[in-house]
């Protein structure tokens, strides 16, 4: 369960990237965050996985105030999460396989298991045939799917996906959403930032509208 | 270096023999030469022909007999020299000792200076290698900061992220140590060939020698430690999360 209490975030005066956000995301939720460009969606996610600290406010995840977790323990929080970054953050000097395997190697997963799970994750996003390519040889949409595979490979408790279908055609976007939905059915909390009204209409359960850093509406369908 | 022992003018023959024996027995002495009163006068005459008139006008021969002892090269720096001189001075029949104390002192201070320079250079080199290694690692860390970032965001512990860099720094330091030992070895081999003959006495002072086995181990371990600490110091700044953003 993710709870945000009166979160304010300012990068530069006088603009507030987030202002007074209070919300609760239950375990097992399938949740969309939407709003115009620059409304603070990415900032909200960054605060949840503590890449970024709020200027004010508190965040509780699984009954722990994550702002109070010391730096050397933060890896425990991150291991619960699978993150799809808006800018992918793939390593271009490593093959697709190794990009995805990173998440498992960190945990000291045995080689064989790594191979199997990376293959499965890549097959879910229909990229298993490009496993030994370098990301630079892939299209934007394919790179995005590598990023998605990396986020789901470890069966995380929480998936944070920032515009995960931004570069995909409608058909593929629906496929990816179905994948997230399937993962969600197994108990994983999924939070997706998107502009895509079509997707929200078809998959939305809980929708958070951000506008200029303010939480405008919370909607449950 | 030579030391001259002046004897009493009317010294009995027996005493001369005793002194000569004493000189020859010392392991500092290479060879000795007895210079009689007459011989001394001749030498003087040869060296200063203009002044011989003064000497001739004297009723007595002003030159005392003496022993000239040449010391072995490697005994010059020995601290036994002053003890030896003292002992000889107290021997019956020896009136005065002349030697160039200055020179002995100068050589001693020269070797002290050489040691100080050695330590100074050593310190600078250690510092330089520390800085070089930590900068190499810093560049490396910088060029791989995307990877470090994704490792951190995926839940890699700081230790997990550090290990490859620490290993790299340590190996760099280790190789540096081995390389420097190799270069020292080559230098010790080659340098005396060029300098050996011209150094003369100094080659003893500088005393080229290989490091002992444990010293070699020390150099390599030291290199590894420098590499380890160097990479640790350049990592610590990088692994801190950016709390500002
Ligand atoms: N690192 C930063 N430094 C300064 N300002 C920032 C930084 N990151 C974001 N901002 C600002 O904060 C605001 C919210 O940015 P954010 O990236 O959260 O928007 P977003 O909703 O994700 O937009 P988009 O849909 O385009 O991805 C924007 O006005 C942006 O300019
Ligand atoms: Mg964004």
Structure summarized in a few sentences:
The complex is a heterodimer of chains A (221) and B (245). Chain A has 221 residues and is an alpha/beta fold.
Could you explain the architecture of this structure?
The complex is a heterodimer of chains A (221) and B (245). With 221 residues, chain A is an alpha/beta fold. Chain A has 2 domains: 144 residues, Rossmann fold; 64 residues, no CATH class. Chain A has a 6-stranded mixed beta sheet, sandwiched between helices. In chain A, strands 2-1-4-5 form a 4-stranded antiparallel beta sheet, with helices on one face. In chain A, helix 3 packs across helix 4, helix 3 packs parallel to helix 5 and helix 4 crosses helix 5. Chain B folds into 2 domains: 98 residues, Alpha-Beta Plaits; 134 residues, no CATH class. Chain B has a 4-stranded antiparallel beta sheet. Classes of the chains: A alpha/beta (221), B alpha+beta (245). At the A-B interface, helix 2 of A face helix 6 of B. The complex binds adenosine-5'-triphosphate (ATP) and magnesium ion (MG). Magnesium ion (MG) binds next to helix 1 of chain A.
Compile the SSE list and pairings:
The complex is a heterodimer of chains A (221) and B (245).
Chain A: E1 2-9, E2 18-25, E3 30-34, H1 41-48, E4 56-61, E5 64-65, H2 74-78, E6 81-84, H3 96-105, H4 111-124, H5 140-152, E7 158-162, H6 170-185, E8 189-193, H7 197-203, E9 206-211, E10 214-220
Chain B: E1 2-7, H1 13-25, E2 29-35, H2 37-47, H3 52-57, E3 66-71, H4 80-89, E4 94-98, H5 101-143, H6 145-153, H7 158-199, H8 201-206, H9 213-238
Antiparallel strand pairs in B: 1-3, 1-4, 2-3
Helix pairs in contact in B: 5-7, 5-9, 7-9
The complex binds adenosine-5'-triphosphate (ATP) and magnesium ion.
Adenosine-5'-triphosphate (ATP) binds at residues 11-12, 15, 17, 35, 37-43, 86 of chain A.
